[in-house]
Amino acid sequence: MPYFDAASAAPLHPVARQALQASLDEGWADPARLYREGRRARMLLDAAREAAAEAVGCRPDELAFTSSGTRAVHTGIAGALAARRRVGRHLIVSAVEHSSVLHSADAFEAEGGSVTRVPVLRTGAVTAASYAGALRTDTALACLQSANHEVGTEQPVAEVAEECRAAGVPLLVDAAQSLGWGPVEGDWSLLTASAHKWGGPSGVGLLAVRKGVRFAPQGPADERESGRAPGFENIPAIVAAAASLRAVRAETAQEAVRLRELTERIRTAVVERVPDVEVVGDPVRRLPGIVTFSCLYVDGETLLHALDREGFSVSSGSSCTSSTLTPSHVLKAMGVLSEGNVRVSLPPGTAEEDVERFLTVLPGLVAGVREQLGAPAPATAVRAEELVVDALGRRCPIPVIELAKVIGSVPRGGMVRVLSDDEAARLDIPAWCEMRGQEYVGEEPADQGSAYLVRRVS
Amino acid sequence: MPYFDAASAAPLHPVARQALQASLDEGWADPARLYREGRRARMLLDAAREAAAEAVGCRPDELAFTSSGTRAVHTGIAGALAARRRVGRHLIVSAVEHSSVLHSADAFEAEGGSVTRVPVLRTGAVTAASYAGALRTDTALACLQSANHEVGTEQPVAEVAEECRAAGVPLLVDAAQSLGWGPVEGDWSLLTASAHKWGGPSGVGLLAVRKGVRFAPQGPADERESGRAPGFENIPAIVAAAASLRAVRAETAQEAVRLRELTERIRTAVVERVPDVEVVGDPVRRLPGIVTFSCLYVDGETLLHALDREGFSVSSGSSCTSSTLTPSHVLKAMGVLSEGNVRVSLPPGTAEEDVERFLTVLPGLVAGVREQLGAPAPATAVRAEELVVDALGRRCPIPVIELAKVIGSVPRGGMVRVLSDDEAARLDIPAWCEMRGQEYVGEEPADQGSAYLVRRVS
After folding, report:
1. Portion 226-265 of A in contact with B at CB < 8 A
2. Which terminus of chain B is more solvent-facing, meaning fewer CB atoms within 10 Å of its CB: N or C?
C-alpha cells in the first residue's frame, strides 16, 4: 500500500522509534529538577540539542525545541517582529509560503503591520531581485521557505539572504521540507523545521535564532527552552527527532539520487501517458522526492479517491477537495492549472515497482474520472459572434470541460464567454488557454459570478 | 530508587506506553487527509477525544488537545479574555496558581488589563467569599486551580463556580493536579489539564471550553483542533494520554485511599521524628498523594541533595535551591515557613516500605544539614535593650538560625534586630516567630537590606 504523501507527514523512521522507546524510560522527568531522574532527562535533552544543532548548522544555545513546526514559525515570526518594532512594522513573505507563515503575516496585518507578499515565477520560485525590491527601511523581517511544500521547487535562499544581510534585515527560513535533505545554505538569521517531515515523531519543531539576532518572545513568560517554547519539554520525542535527523542525513546522498530518478521518471511518464496534463514546479531546482501535476477536466477529490482505492495515498492542491473550495494558494500564485491536481511526495525507501504501478494505473483512472464528468451538456446560446457557456453553480473542473467542448464550434477569432461563479475558474481558464494555445481575453463582472472571455485562435 | 515527585511529572503509565507504541504505526499521518492513513489517524484522534471528554465530563466537541498543560492555560486564558474584551479587562486569579496562570496574568497586565490576585488562608485554600468579593462588573474571567501543586490543598471550586455563575463570569479551572483522581465538580466554564501529571506522555494538554462560553483564539489562525491548538496533531501521544487517563481513573478508588494513608503517615511521623518542622497545607481537604513540610534551620537544596544520595527524589519550594533565589510564591502566599521545604508527591503504586525508609532516614539527614550550617557565629553587638544580628550577605536559612541562637540572650520583653538582605527572611522570620511563640514586631528599612524586629515574649 504505497504512501506517496511524505510532504504531509513521513512514517516514523526506525531510528526514531528506537530512540523514542529507549527514552520513554529515561526522559520523562522534569529536566529542571536536581534529582537523578531530572539530571538524566537534562542529559538527554542536552545531547539531543547538540545533535540537532549540528544538523541545522548552528550552536546548541541558538536552538529551541518547540511543539511543532507551526509553533516554531508562529513564535519565530512574532518574536523577530516584536524585537524590531522600533525599526518598523513591515514584513516580507513569499506568496507560496506554508500557511503557518501566511497566517502569521495575516495576524501581523490585523495588528496594524504591513506585509509584502513577493510573487513567484511560473516555476514556483521567487527571485532574489524581487526580495531586494521589496526591502524597505522599515522592514523588520523577511521570510522565505527553503523549498516549496506543494511543488518541491527550491528557493534561492542564499541569494535572498545576501540581499537581506546587505539591508540589515533578518531572514527567517522555513526549512520544513528540506532539513532532512541537508542544512540550509546561506546566511540565514532564523530557521524553523518540523520533525515529522523527516521521519521524526509528531510534536517536535525546531526554532533556531542566530546569536546577535534580536528576538523578543511574545506571550506569557516561561523559563523553558530559553523562553521560546513554553510548557514541559517532550524529551522522548525530542530525542527521537534528533536521532532520526542524524539518521536520515546519513542516508541522504544515496536516497536523494534514487528518489530524484523516480520523480524524474514520473515527470516524464505522466506527460507521455496522460493527455492534457501539466507538470508543475521547477524541473531542475527541486527537492528529490516531490512531483506535482494537474490534469485538465478532472476533479481532484474524485481522482484522489480513485487512487486511494488502488492503494496510493497522495494529496491535492485542487479546489475540488472536500476540505476547501479554493485552489491551493501555491498553484494560484504560480498561475498554473489547479484542476485535477496531484502531489506525489515519495518517502525515502519508496520501491521502484510502486512508482511503476502508479504510472500504470494513473492513465486509466484519469480517463475514468473524465468520462464520469463528461456527461451533462450546458445550456448554450449564440449571441452575435459569441458563444455563451452558462456554468453557473457548477464546480471545478466542469467550467473548463464545457469551455473545451464548445471552443471548436466558434469560428477562429470568435469568442466564448464562460459564466462561472467557481473560484477555481479564475485560475484554470487562463491556464487552459495557455496549454491549448487559445487567447485568454479577460474577466468581466456578470450578474452572477464572472464572465471569462476566451478567443479561439487555433 | 523511590521517586516521590509525581506532582512534577509521573513516569509513563504502562497503558500509556502500550497505547503509544500501538499508535505509532497507525497515528502518524495527517488526519485531515482523505486517504486511508489519514482516515485511520482521524479515527484514532476521534476515539481519543471521546474517551478524554468522558473523563473530563464534557462533550467531545468542547475538548481540544494542546501541546502541554501550560499551552492549554495560556490559550484558554487569552482566548477567554479576548472574547469578553467588551465586558471588561479584569481578571481574577488566586495567589497560589501555577506559574502558567500567573504569567498569563502578568502578560495581561502588561497589555493594560487589571488583575486581582485572591489571597489564601494559611492552609493554601481560597474562600468562595473572597472570590465573590473580587468579582466586578468588568470582570472578564476568573481562574482557580482544582488543587494546589505544591501543598496538595483542594480548592472550593464548586462554590467559587457558583459565585462566578451568579455574576455571569466564566471560570477557568486548572485541573492539572487533580484530573487523574476524578472529574472537577461544579459548574466550570473552561478547564485545562496536562497528561504527564497522570502518567500520560509529555506533549499533551487538554483545553475544554463549554458550549456557550465565548472564546476567541489569539495568534495566527490554524484549522486544527477547532483553531485552539495550532500545529500538526501528535496523535500517538494523544491516544496514549486518553488511554492512560481512563486507566488511572479505573485504579483511583483503591489507590487514593492507600496513598492518603501513606501521606497521613508522613504528616504524623515527620512531626514526631524531626524537631522544628511545620507540615503545611490543608490536613483534610487535600489530594491523596501530596504532603509538604518545612524544616527550620535547613537549606532546602542541601537537604534535597542528601535525600537524592539516599535514593529519594523530591522537590522543594525553598528559596535555597539552585534555580531560584526567592521562595515559592505558594508558600509565600500561605505565610508559612519556606526554609528547608520538602514536597513529597507519591506516584500511584508507591510501596509502603519506601515511605517507611524515607521516614527512617529523614531525621538524620535534617540533623546533618543543621549541624553543617550551625557553625559560623554572627557578629553581634548589644545596643541598649536590643541585640543586633548582622546576617547581611547570608542566605536562607542562616538568618533564622542566627536569630534562634541569640533570642535566649535578651531578657523577656527585649528585642532582636536581624539585619538581612535575603528575600526569604521576610517570610521565614515571621513564620519562625509563629512557630516559637515569639512576637514578630515588623520590618524596617536598613542601610542594606531590611531590619526584622522580634520581641522575646516566651
Report:
1. 230-237
2. C
